[in-house]
Write a structure and sequence with these properties.
This protein is 29% helix and 32% strand. With 348 residues, the chain is of the alpha+beta class. The chain is globular, with a radius of gyration of 33 Å.
Length: 348
């Protein structure tokens, strides 16, 4: 099988909060059935989280997606367009080949490829070369050894050939990812530094939503750049172990947003806060959640005790009231007087 040219469906996952590291990645996708709503072939390039170039089988041109990519040499676009056209032709062959490995003759299938490199804060570099089929991992490059590792049995033929002495495909890609790819990454970062390294501080909003006997706490963090952020819920200064988080989503203005939620049972004396760490902040933010209705802090046991106390106070107050009234008039021992008092109490 020739080189496979896969994945635009993969998500960019950035783990570091302080994003002085940078990455250059390309996601390529080939589909078996035109008319599926996806181009038969597409290639999308990213620097960090920013889409910088795009090619597909409909436009048939490699195009810039950010203004600062226009700073590259004009010949870059023609070279990249011709390379993408070659990859598009190879993609058609690869889709058919992989389908035959699975004994498939029709239907909708996707062959995907993600490759790229990263330069970390400490200057070290690493690379990626990963392949997928129909949403599952097919094969990947071990950049430590320069060999391809099949993760589906149908990928073994390809891995064996690419790892052979005759081809040594893994060694060539390892060298490319650690040298030429890094060179291009540094050029792109220099051209787009103002955009890539701008810092916009996040806005944070915390809220609570009652859910039966529990409270669902939400921490909405939005309007921040760059994309990397760390958000979590804390109780009395300790991490809340279980919480739900959305993907970090883009806003129309180029900033990002994320929401982290935790289901808790608030008790008196407990304090819940949302912790936010982002490269635009000198120190992490801690935003305390304060319930709009203080009664949410009261447990069912406390409620029962309060009801009993209030009831006792009401009865006691009524008794004192009747005694006080009796002190201002002649005491009556008639049955009528007693029954009237009972009637008045029932109406109260």
């Amino acid at each position: 099988m020739g080189k496979m040219f896969p994945l635009v469906v993969l998500l960019l996952h950035v783990s570091a909060v302080y994003s002085d590291s940078h990455s250059l990645r390309y996601y390529k996708t080939g589909v078996s059935a035109p008319g599926s709503g996806l181009p038969e072939y597409s290639s999308v390039g990213y620097v960090d989280d920013r889409e910088i170039v795009n090619y597909n089988s409909e436009s048939r041109r490699m195009k810039p997606k950010v203004k600062w990519m226009e700073k590259v040499d004009p010949g870059y676009w023609e070279t990249q367009t011709q390379r993408a056209k070659g990859n598009e032709a190879a993609s058609r062959y690869n889709v058919r080949t992989v389908m035959s490995r699975f004994n498939q003759t029709g239907g909708f299938h996707i062959v995907q490829w993600m490759s790229g490199c990263e330069q970390r804060d400490d200057g070290s570099v690493t690379g990626y070369d990963q392949y997928g089929y129909d949403g599952g991992e097919f094969m990947f490059l071990d950049t430590q050894t320069g060999t391809y590792i099949p993760t589906m049995s149908q990928a073994q033929i390809t891995a064996q050939r690419w790892n052979s002495r005759e081809e040594q495909e893994g060694e060539r890609w390892k060298n490319y990812l650690e040298t030429e790819c890094i060179d291009w990454l540094q050029k792109h970062v220099e051209n787009g530094r103002e955009d890539l390294e701008r810092r916009v501080q996040p806005q944070v909003k915390v809220s609570g939503q009652k859910k039966g006997d529990t409270m669902m706490l939400h921490c909405q963090v939005y309007g921040f750049h760059p994309r990397a952020v760390h958000v979590k819920w804390m109780k009395n200064g300790d991490d809340v172990p279980d919480y739900e988080t959305t993907h970090t989503l883009p806003n129309p203005d180029g900033t990002y947003q994320i929401r982290v939620s935790a289901e808790v049972i608030p008790k008196e004396g407990e304090s819940y806060s949302c912790y936010v760490d982002h490269s635009s902040l000198g120190e992490p933010l801690t935003v305390v959640w304060e319930p709009s209705n203080p009664s949410v802090w009261v447990t069912p046991v406390v409620v029962a005790v309060v009801v009993i106390i209030l009831l006792a106070a009401a009865i006691g107050g009524f008794v004192l009231y009747r005694r006080k009234k009796a002190g201002y008039k002649t005491t009556s021992t008639s049955d009528t007087s007693s029954s009237d008092a009972s009637a008045n109490a029932a109406k109260a």
